[in-house]
Structure formats: C-alpha cells, structure tokens
UniProtKB/TrEMBL annotation:
Full protein name: L-lysine 2,3-aminomutase
Highest taxon of the lineage: Bacteria
Spans through the membrane: none
Pfam families: Radical_SAM
Cofactor(s) demanded: [4Fe-4S] cluster; pyridoxal 5'-phosphate
Ranges for domain Radical SAM core: 103-326
InterPro entries, per database record: Aldolase_TIM, EpmB, Lys_aminomutase/Glu_NH3_mut, rSAM, rSAM_sf
Taxonomic lineage: Bacteria, Pseudomonadati, Pseudomonadota, Gammaproteobacteria, Alteromonadales
GO molecular function: 4 iron, 4 sulfur cluster binding; isomerase activity; metal ion binding
C-alpha cells in the first residue's frame, strides 16, 4: 500500500488534528487581530505552547481580542504574573503510585487514557505537566483491572486525560472490552473536550460500540461558552444521544470568558438545545500562570444564585471546587 493510501484511510478527525494551529502569529493573521497586540503577548507561548484546531478558530470573531474562545487558547502576557497560592500542582496528583490511575472517590476510578489534548487551554493545570508521552497500555490496563477487582465499591470507570478521545476507536474498544468482563462495573464515563474543538471526533462507529456495551455510557463534555455549541456539534451529538448515551457538560468559571450570569444562562440553554445537561461548574484550580482567569468565591456564589433565578433547576450546574483529599468534589 502506498503512503497516500495510508493517509487516506486515516479518519477525518485525525487529519484535522494534524492541521492544528500552533503559531500565534498565524492565528492572529487569520483573525485579523492588531499586530501590536499579538507582539505584546507572544512571549507567553514559551510557558505553554499554543495549540488549537482550525474548527475552533473558525468559531471565533474576527478582529475581537476579547473573543471568549480566543481568550481560552491565546498565550497572554498575564501568564507571567505570579500570585501567592497559585502553584504548579494544585491537586497534588503528581506522585501517584500507579501513574495514570486515580482512585480518590469510593465508587469510581479515573484513568488518564491519553496525556495529549487537541488544544492547550491556558487555564489548565496540564500547562505544567503536558504528559504528552503518557500512554495507557496493556500494563496499565492490567493494573486497572486488578484495582477494580480488589475493591467491590468500584462500579464506574472514568476515561479522562489529557483527553481520552485522543485514543482511536480501536484502542477504546480494547479498553471497553476488558472492562465489560468485570461484573461489578455498571458504567463507563468519558470526560472529553475533543468534541467541542473537533466534532468529527464523535464518530458513528464509537457511538455504536458504546450502544452495544453492557455498560451504560456517559459522555461528559467540557464547554465554557455558548459559542462553542455549534450546528456541527449538535448534529454529531444527535447520533450519540440516539445511541442512548447520556450527555453532560462541565465548565470552568473563567474571568472575561463566562463570569456573568447571562453568559452562563446562554450556555445552559445552548447545551440543553443540543441534548446536553449542565453537570458541574468548576471554580478554577489555582494553577500558576492562570491567576488572571480566577474570580472570587463570593462572586461565584452570587453567579450561581442569579442562575437559579433565571433557569429551571435542571439547567443550573453544581458549583464545585476540587480540594485535595476530599471524598468528592466540594460544593462552594
Ligand atoms: C472529578 C473526579 C471524579 C468524578 O467525580 P464525580 O463527582 O463522580 O463526577 C472521579 N475521580 C477523580 C480523581 C476526579 O478528579
Ligand atoms: S485537559 Fe481539558 S482543559 Fe486541560 S488542556 Fe486538555 S482539553 Fe484543555
């Protein structure tokens, strides 16, 4: 088989991924942003590289340096600001005895299936630990199986990352097939931002595979703004909800991106129109280099209160933060 044939059989989403944008100057040119503005921020890419899909850029507004999607991915001079309390490993997860497997909550175990992501979000703790090389192979799968079998409390496995949907459908099938053999498991959950930045990742084949599974499947998306809910995403999600997959979303509260009640209400409405229920609204993890995204707990609580008045209860996400050592996410 020739090289061109090999390239042709790669799924659409992998081809799109290979064409991601990593140069801030190119991004700025596409979006017609002022050159002086770009130069002012360029240095921050050394802290954490720019990475974004063309599809996500296509949802941004031209000429708008305050675009809520742009702010999530564009390196910013503010990232050099050091704030007390903002550290490289806020969740104290770095020296785990089983790398890639986190069993912090009684009934569910989370695995880092793939270290990489389709985009680099500026507010993410991954900026200090890109774990690009992390690969969940046969040895880790065997460790996971042993861990589940040794603890009858575990009934759900969460595939996370990085981004678990960076794995291809064959790799996911292998993991799923192994987990289906464990009678104590009821559910399989996928935490992914990939559909938001690359809807073509929501393949029909994977939806079908999950539909056929003995395990109930849940997909938890990560969208932060209504502009991330596009017709392309809604079409792709329809196939997944028709396959009986429960669709949820988690967001992070981010200054200037979504820190007002109207913006958050629009996000909830857009999600529901796409068949997705809001699940969590996270107060930002205190990550070094991301302090300019943070808002006070008082403001966060006030936003939640406003949302409760504006929306039906089922469209109000739970406002939580992650506290190292707690038995669950902690309500604010
Ligand atoms: C967030 C998280 C979970 C999932 O928590 P839920 O409240 O069930 O959504 C599980 N394990 C770890 C390590 C987590 O950080
Ligand atoms: S883990 Fe999620 S929030 Fe962090 S960079 Fe990847 S996609 Fe973005």
């Amino acid at each position: 088989m020739s090289v061109t044939n090999l390239i042709r059989v790669r799924p659409q989403w992998q081809q799109e991924l290979a064409q991601s944008i990593t140069d801030p100057v190119e991004l700025a040119q596409q979006l017609e942003l002022p050159q002086g503005w770009v130069e002012q921020h360029l240095g921050a890419r050394k802290l954490f590289p720019l990475r974004v899909t063309q599809y996500f850029v296509d949802q941004m507004e031209r000429g708008n340096t305050a675009d809520p999607l742009l702010l999530q991915v564009m390196p910013q001079a503010d990232e050099f600001t050091q704030q007390p309390g903002f550290v490289t490993d806020p969740l104290e997860e770095q020296d785990n005895e089983h790398p890639g497997i986190l069993h912090k909550y009684k009934s569910r175990v989370l695995v880092i299936l793939r270290g990489g992501c389709a985009i680099n979000c500026r507010y993410c703790f991954r900026r200090h630990f890109p774990y690009q090389d992390h690969h969940f192979g046969r040895a880790q799968l065997n460790q996971l199986i042993a861990l589940v079998e040794a603890d009858a409390n575990i009934n759900e496995v969460i595939l996370s990352g990085g981004d678990p949907l960076m794995a291809n459908d064959t790799q996911l099938d292998t993991v799923l097939t192994a987990l289906e053999q464990l009678p104590q498991l009821k559910r399989i959950r996928i935490h992914s931002r990939l559909p938001i930045v690359l809807p073509s990742r929501l393949t029909q084949e994977l939806a079908k595979r999950l539909q056929q599974s003995r395990l109930q499947a849940i997909l938890v998306l990560h969208a932060n703004h209504a502009n991330e809910i596009t017709p392309a995403l809604m079409n792709a999600l329809k196939v997944w909800s028709n396959a009986g997959i429960t669709l949820l979303n988690q967001s992070v509260l981010l200054a200037r991106v979504n820190d007002d009640a109207v913006t958050l209400a629009e996000l909830s409405e857009a999600l529901f129109a796409a068949g997705v229920l809001p699940y969590y609204l996270h107060q930002l993890d205190k990550v070094a280099g991301a302090s300019h995204f943070s808002i006070s707990d008082e403001k966060a609580r006030n936003l939640e209160q406003q949302l409760r008045a504006m929306l039906p209860g089922f469209l109000v996400p739970k406002l939580v933060r992650e506290v190292a050592g707690e038995a669950s996410k902690t309500p604010l």
